[in-house]
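Q: Could you write out the predicted structure for this multi-component system? I'm mainly interested in how the pieces pack against one another.
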Amino acid sequence: MFRVAAQLFRYRGLLATLTSRELKARYRGSVLGFLWSLANPLLLLAVYTFVFSVVFKARSQGADPYALFLVSGLFPWIWTSASTLEGAMSLVANSGLIRKAVFPAELLPLVAVLSNLVHFLFALPIVITALVAGRLLGFPVGGVSILVLPLIILIHLPLVAGLALGFSALTVHFKDVRDLLANLLTLMFFLTPILFPLASIRHLAPVWWAVRLNPFTPYILAYQETLFWGRIPEPMLWVQMGAVSLVAWSFGAGLFERLRETLVEAA
Amino acid sequence: MTEPIAPPLPVLAPAEPATPAITVEGVTKLYRRTMPGDRLRTLKSALVGRSLTRGLRPEEAIAALEGVDFTVGRGEAFGLIGGNGSGKSTLLKLVAGMLKPTTGRIIVGGRVAALIELGAGFHPEISGRENVFINGAVLGLSRRQIESRYADIVEFSGLGDFMEEPVKNYSSGMYVRLGFAVAIHTDPDVLLVDEVLAVGDEAFAHRCLRRIEEFLASGRTLLLVSHSLDLVEGVCDRVLWLEDGHQRLVGEPRRVIDAYRQEVAEKEGEEHKAARQQRQERQAAGGTVSEELRWGSREAEITAIRLLVGNEERYHVESGEPVVFEIRARAAQPLDDFVFGVAVATPRGNDVWGTNTDLEGYVSGTFEGEATVRLTCPALRLGPGDYVVDVAVHSKDGAPYDYQRRALAFTVTARTGGVGTYLPEHDWSFAGGVRWAGRKGLEP
């Protein structure tokens, strides 16, 4: 895992080039181009607001306005799950590069992580604007706590990177991972308090425990605290995030490291 | 277009002779055989931390390389030859660091650039220009370093008008041009080239070779894999011949390449022999051969033909060796008008030499029962290549009794150079103002 980190540092320039290329490639040939990075979260916000406020009339359990609560957890989750899925496929999708050329393979899952991070960062102004608007309308949302957001993202990053690295190497050997992973992430999504405030399920003991023990939960809670509730996350959340990130990075990068020599042959 | 003047390469300080550029020590590379039903076991060993390649049972592994040992000095051009699947590309990937040896070790001094496969390392969707930057960065150059060499790279590749095109629109020649241009301009200490040069056109190949000469002269190292033996002989200082992952021979190019050619010819000779045997067995068993390969009235019949070199039946011949074409024939009824003929041609049908008993003045008397006809050439001076032989027995006015087209084939090898189908004994001599710097490739 140290070697992976060293490689990433050594090729940081290339990592940046590849990430910006990935972002450019995504919008090549589209009329709105980079504006999609802003339009996508905006549309998502609109769709979820419509579905959960109008169609389902979700009980917001004090989390008002619900759409704002939703997006403060949803965008970090989208970053996590999109990076993990894209990262898992990154080596297989670029097998030509790995099999036939001397190429630092660890860059590929990280490109997936970073390009999705950029999308996440592009969504933040939308979230912040919406929070400001909510505050102006008299809702007690947001606050200066947003200043610790960069720190949360920084702690979140090794988790996402570890997942992308580990699953990318596994997918090379076991194509089954791809299908398993997509469904596993959907399950995780519903076991993370993104659609509902954690407090709202306290009476359902088994589910409450499943959600509490879900390693993604502390991150989502921290984002919601910081963005929606306008509070600095309590120390326990920071400890949990740090521990999960450390484990995820060690395991993911460690697995990648161990399978590295087989990637060229199997990709 | 004018020839770009390559910027002089910085000359490396002469390293201690004791530190080679590439050291390959007892390297064995096993590949995992893909076996049904062992995916789960693989998953388990991946997760619990056992290696996926060490400790494989013999039936689970395929040895791509076994016990390979050699060193390449700085400034040396080292060639790898051998048939398909002999392990050349695996060895190159090992030296490039893309693969790890199963046992043994590989030490490479300095930065390596590798041109392993056509278009490898290029993103098809993005422009040539962006690819140069990505490729350069992979080879270890900073953005600023690539920017300062960009103009040279474009000029060397001759792709000035195409740099903004996505490389998926490039021809295979253009891929190679760009790939080689980037690789050579990143000043690697060791350059690995697999075959790709064969794809470029003649002019570009020459430009590459000139650049490789400069590259070598500046103390850098080349590892070249090619099926073009002439290219290997022209460029390399030493050559390694790999066969089925084993090291057959390593040393002076001419010697190794000759030995390799000789063996390839022997194998071809064996194939020619087997083909001839098969055909004769089929004929003997009363089976028919296509009308295009055998025709005639069969008043006389050719029952066998073989090639004797010295006293040995074989179908690979070193140019200049004594050769006998031996025909066995049979006439059921007595014949008084008969001619035996032999014709040698290239496989594409160009006549090389032909003769018959009539042309050489033999007047037929009688032919009855079994006969053996031998046509002896004390020295068959053919150029290197494959040849096919037609044999016939026919009447004086040309009506065939038995005409067998391509009755046998053989392969000729030659130690001295030259092109064409004829290789006379020859020697050069010089007088006056001509001086030679030396003569390559002729070992005692």
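A: Regarding packing and overall arrangement: Chain A has a mean pLDDT of 87.
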